[in-house]
Design a protein that fits this description.
The complex is a heterodimer of chains A (288) and B (282).
Chain A (H helix, E strand, L loop, with lengths): L9 H31 L4 H6 L12 H8 L3 H32 L5 H13 L7 H10 L7 H24 L4 H8 L4 H12 L1 H17 L2 H6 L9 H11 L6 H36 L1
Helix pairs in contact in A: 1-13, 3-13, 4-7, 4-10, 4-12, 5-7, 7-10, 8-9, 10-13, 12-13
Chain B lengths: L2 H17 L6 E3 L4 E3 L3 H8 L1 H32 L6 H9 L6 H11 L6 H8 L16 H25 L4 H9 L4 H30 L2 H6 L11 H10 L7 H32 L1
Antiparallel strand pairs in B: 1-2
Helix pairs in contact in B: 2-12, 3-7, 3-9, 7-9, 9-12, 11-12
Classes of the chains: A mainly alpha (288), B mainly alpha (282).
């Protein structure tokens, strides 16, 4: 909407200015927790324990990070977070684009029934209780000692929306392309990875970002799967464990540094690709 | 090519769903299961803590919705006017949604800290309070604090939904409104809101179902405390299954999960019914 070109009276201008300042103030208030934790991670522990609302550290120290990295196992947590994020992203992109392609292009018996099953389980939610059978299954398959099981569950529970998005996108690509490929001797699968998949780029970018965010940010699932195994924890779990298990206030500086490590990579990715994130949200919601 | 997706669907969604009904009549602690007949079901109906947590779920969901919907709609209307700075605002207000709920809740436990936490320090400096408030430990305040955190974390989502809804309203309508001499408030209530209503319905449905399902941030902020005052249905159930210090009561938890799913189902159906009724009226 480009209403900026209307002629406005002085009174209207004043109202708009006042609103802008008010919303700007709200925006700063909203950012406060993020800035507080990131700048706080450079404070000395004794300054953190004293509290107060100051943002800037009195003395700027890096040792919170070196401590967290070396003594508190955060190098492992970071590696695990990247494993969850990237693993979920790659598998989701592959599986959801293939399924979207099949649902859009192939006709087979019970296709609609299968598709509705996917959609239905998007809405069935019985909460954390479903983690119990999955955990028991993972123990039985001896997969509970690896984060692969967590990735698989994340992909499985999150895939419906993405399949939906992909199917919608493939529907917009003309069928003549497939037919031309078929005449040139491509099989059904070759048509997908040589012709269709490259064309899915815009939606793939969005799905990659959203699924990476899902893997990186997940908390309860890895919490349950790593109850007794510290070396498997991602940042979200590791930093929260520190608060519960650590000897009270003494480890605040490490919690601050750890929380910053858990949010900064995501924020940087967001700032670079903010447009894709927002597009993904609306595509999923409005069509879904 | 479809098989990986179907396999994952069966393992991660279909199987756990049917597993749920297996232990409804059992007392199951993760190792052995004893048949106890309808004991779990009877217990569910007399479990005061659970029914309190149901009430808290409603308190939380209603509080969150009342705040988050008007605020995000207001922001969306403002940002959609494409004034200078709009894009920056959009990026800032959406930012919390990329942060894990578990981590921002952890950050808020520091913000809400009783002893010289930032919030109490600022309020004391402004002379608004005389004694520090125990935001997360005082039964009077805990739910309000949790709702504030939830609004902080979810605001951006609904703002983006509303912005995309608003962009579908054509510019000409607003122009003719201006010519007819409608002011901002009139335009909003007579044009924007009615034109937005189909999308508003979808957004509300999403908002309601999410608000009733939230529990991750409660686990981090208070884990249901003080004394169960902030337990919602799913945080209570979670603690029955995965509690660190007592033996898990999985059979009983499956009964409560089915109940919780039914409650949410009834609410969703009720909302859909109401939304259709409203359609007939307007």
């Amino acid at each position: 909407m480009s209403s900026a070109n209307y002629i406005r009276s002085n009174k209207q201008k004043a109202v708009i200015w006042a609103l802008t300042i008010f919303i700007g103030f709200c925006a700063l208030l909203l950012l406060y927790p993020v800035i507080y934790i990131s700048l706080g991670s450079f404070k000395e522990n004794k300054e953190l324990l004293l509290g107060g609302a100051n943002l800037l550290p009195k003395r700027f120290v890096l040792e919170n990070y070196t401590q967290a990295w070396q003594n508190a196992n955060f190098s492992v947590y970071t590696k695990n977070s990247f494993f969850l994020g990237i693993g979920t992203m790659i598998l989701t992109v592959i599986i959801s684009s293939m399924s979207g392609y099949v649902f859009s292009r192939k006709d087979f018996k019970y296709k609609e029934l299968l598709y509705s099953t996917f959609v239905a389980f998007m809405f069935v939610n019985v909460g954390s209780v479903t983690l119990r059978p999955l955990f028991e299954l993972a123990v039985k398959l001896k997969m509970n000692t690896s984060l692969v099981s967590v990735v698989l569950i994340l992909v499985g529970t999150g895939q419906a929306t993405f399949i939906f998005l992909n199917r919608g996108f493939v529907n917009t690509i003309p069928k003549e392309l497939d037919e031309a490929a078929k005449i040139d001797g491509c099989t059904f699968f070759q048509t997908f990875y040589r012709i269709l998949f490259p064309l899915l780029k815009p939606i793939t970018a969005t799905i990659a970002l959203l699924s990476f965010r899902g893997g990186w940010n997940e908390y309860i699932l890895p919490l349950v799967f790593t109850m007794s195994n510290d070396s498997m924890r991602p940042l979200t779990v590791g930093v929260n464990m520190l608060r519960n298990v650590g000897d009270g206030a003494a480890a605040w500086n490490i919690v601050f540094a750890g929380a910053t490590m858990a949010i900064l990579p995501m924020i940087v990715i967001y700032l670079i690709f903010s447009r894709h994130f927002m597009q993904g949200m609306t595509a999923g919601a409005v069509k879904g | 090519m479809l098989s990986p997706a179907v396999l994952l669907l069966v393992i991660t969604s279909v199987y756990p769903f049917f597993w749920l009904f297996r232990y409804v009549l059992y007392d199951y602690n993760g190792f052995v299961a004893y048949f106890t007949g309808t004991y779990n079901i009877k217990r569910a109906f007399t479990d005061a803590v659970f029914w309190k947590s149901v009430l808290h779920t409603f308190e939380y969901a209603i509080g969150k919705l009342i705040l988050i919907i008007p605020i995000s709609l207001g922001l969306a209307v403002f940002i959609s006017r494409n004034l200078p700075g709009s894009n920056t605002f959009r990026i800032i207000f959406f930012l919390p949604t990329v942060i894990s709920a578990s981590v921002y809740s952890l950050i808020f436990t520091f913000i809400f800290a009783v002893f010289r936490g930032p919030l109490n320090t600022v309020l004391e400096a402004m002379n608004l309070i005389t004694r520090p408030i125990d935001w997360l430990g005082d039964p009077k305040w805990v739910m309000k604090s949790i709702i504030v955190v939830a609004v902080w974390g979810g605001l951006g989502n609904y703002m983006i939904y509303f912005i995309s809804g608003l962009s579908s309203i054509s510019e000409e309508i607003y122009e003719s409104c201006m010519i007819d001499g409608a002011n901002g408030t009139q335009t909003f209530f007579k044009i924007t809101l009615p034109m937005l209503s189909p999308i508003l319905k979808v957004i509300l449905l999403l908002a309601i179902t999410t608000a009733f399902k939230d529990y991750q941030s409660i686990l981090v902020l208070t884990n249901g405390g003080p004394d169960g005052r902030s337990h919602v249905m799913f945080s209570y159930i979670y603690n029955l299954i995965f509690a660190a210090f007592s033996s898990p009561q999985i059979g009983y938890a499956t009964v409560l999960s089915v109940l919780a799913a039914l409650i949410i189902g009834v609410i969703t159906a009720g909302y859909l019914y109401l939304a259709r009724k409203l359609d007939d009226v307007f």
